Amino acid sequence: MPRNNVPLRKAGRQNKRELLLNAAIEVFARKGSNQATIADVAKKARVALGTVYVYFDSKDDLLQHCMKEIIETEINGIINRTAEVSNHMDRLYEFFMHHVALVKEKPYIARFIAVEARQNENFIRRNPGYNPLLKYLDFVKEVTTSAIQENQIKTIDAEALALLLVGSMDIVLWNWLAGENEMDIDTIGQRIRQILHAGVALVS
User: Fold this and answer.
1) Is 6 exposed, middle or buried (0-12, 13-18, 19+ CB in 10 A)?
2) Dihedral, CA atoms, 13, 15, 19, 25, nearest 10 degrees?
3) What is the pLDDT of residue 34?
4) Architecture of the 2-200 domain
């Protein structure tokens, strides 16, 4: 009988861990990890304080796993959903719009990324592999380089374009969050696509 319950216990632990991660992301998004405490996370998840330490060694460990969860689950998921788009500039646009959809569905994720990128420089320096903005920059540079190599666009500085696009996306989404969703980010996204095509397209 105990052996038959092992899968259920494992599933229960996994569900509890995901509950804690989601609660932590929401707490960090609202307060910033510098101000948030493990007690805040436990309260949000409606668990005892000691339960958090069963799954995570410290607040920094929890923050690291939150970053990893977002990068591996959310951002990589968006990148994979654009993989079949053959035109590389259209792929960048689709990535942007999928990210917009994610923000609309889970605005706390965008807030979490924005807050931690701005307020927790020490964590980013210690854990550069867990910086979502670097993930964005690397993706845009990779796609832009492929577009140049395949003669889809003129030869441009891929890193400069990455900074331009990721910076624009960051500002647009931050303003949307700060403005209580008053900005029409779908329209803004379409206009960015038009400017992008006009700016980098090969002269026919």
Assistant:
1) exposed
2) 100
3) 86
4) Orthogonal Bundle (1.10)
Q: How far apart are CA 110 and CA 169, in angstroms?
A: 11
Minimal CA–CA distance to 152: which of 116, 109, 204, 194? Answer: 204
Model pTM score: 0.74
* pLDDT tens readout for residues 168-188: 877 877 777 777 656 777 787
* Collapsed DSSP state (helix, strand, coil) of residue 47: coil
35: three-class secondary structure by DSSP: coil
Domain boundaries, the chain: 2-200
Tell me the pLDDT tens digit for each residue of 86-127: 888 888 888 888 888 888 888 888 788 777 766 666 666 776
Q: What residues are paired with 153 via a beta bridge?
A: 201
What does the alpha-carbon distance between residue 124 and residue 114 come to, in Å, rounded to a whole number? 12
- Rounded to the nearest 5°, which phi and psi values hold at 201? -65, 145
* Structure tokens given for 162: 């990455």
Separation of first and last alpha carbons in the chain:
73
